[in-house]
Design a protein that fits this description.
The structure holds 2 protein chains of 2 kinds.
Chain A lengths: L3 E4 L2 E4 L5 E7 L7 E6 L6 E5 L3 E2 L7 E6 L2 E6 L9 E6 L6 E2 L3 E5 L1
Chain B lengths: L2 E5 L3 E2 L5 E8 L8 E8 L6 E7 L4 E3 L7 E6 L4 E6 L8 E9 L7 E2 L3 E5 L2
Parallel strand pairs in B: 2-11
Antiparallel strand pairs in B: 1-3, 3-8, 4-5, 4-9, 5-6, 7-8, 9-10, 9-11
The chains are: A mainly beta, B mainly beta.
Chain lengths: 107, 120
């Protein structure tokens, strides 16, 4: 099973600042990596798939990059609605696996 | 517009069998390449993928839970059913169903989730 490790666990950022979230896979997952956003009491929402493709309706301030084992999600200028928990997921190998999440909180 | 909704009991006793139904609209499970899966999330914890069924009835299960899970589909009703046997308090979680495509694929659309508590 591929282990997905996200860092940091919590990221404190001021509105308008840039946020950089990391995700590492225990072995290569090619570009089969997705990012999801989850707000309290809500289901996860797909942000990025294929490591760098924004899902439908996702603002351009969300950028995904990386391949193989190292991936990054960058939020260029944090808006109030972006404070949430973010999960990465590999879907290259069975079983699919998720990271432990990064909570982006208001500084 | 794609929507999915989970339904089932909110409380089950230890050792009982859980049956959850995902009712969806906006796509068909008879369309080539379509899949529906289940993911769960214990309170305050991360997401865990459980099972997946494709349009052609091909199925995939989490290895750690495979012996306890069964996933089936009813294409005519636009439903997918997940059963989990021998429920334990550690299975307390919000259970989500989600829509994807033939692997490799992320989960494009999610249901709102249903919280299942396992307690005597």
């Amino acid at each position: 099973e591929i282990v997905m490790t996200q860092s940091p666990a919590t990221l404190s950022v001021s509105p308008g600042e840039r946020a950089t979230l990391s995700c590492r896979a225990s072995q290569s997952v090619s570009s089969n990596l997705a990012w999801y956003q989850q707000k309290p009491g809500q289901a996860p929402r797909l942000l990025i798939y294929g490591a760098s493709t924004r899902a439908t309706g996702i603002p351009a301030r969300f950028t995904g990059s990386g391949s193989g084992t190292e991936f990054t999600l960058t939020i260029s200028s944090l808006q109030s609605e972006d404070f949430a928990v973010y999960y990465c997921q590999q879907y290259n190998n069975w079983p699919q696996t998720f990271g432990g999440g990064t909570k982006v909180e208001i500084k | 517009q794609i929507t999915l909704k989970e339904s089932g009991p909110t409380l089950v006793k230890p050792t009982q069998t859980l049956t959850l139904t995902c009712t969806f609209s906006g796509f068909s499970l008879s369309t080539s390449g379509v899949g529906v899966g289940w993911i769960r999330q214990p309170p305050g914890k991360a997401l865990e993928w459980l099972a997946l069924i494709y349009w052609d009835d091909n199925k995939r299960y989490s290895p750690s839970l495979k012996s306890r899970l069964t996933i089936t589909k009813d294409t005519s009703k636009n439903q997918v059913v997940l059963t989990m046997t021998n429920m334990d308090p550690v299975d307390t979680a919000t259970y989500y169903c989600a829509h994807g495509q033939i692997q490799p694929s992320p989960w494009f659309d999610w249901g709102q989730g249903t919280l299942v508590t396992v307690s005597s």
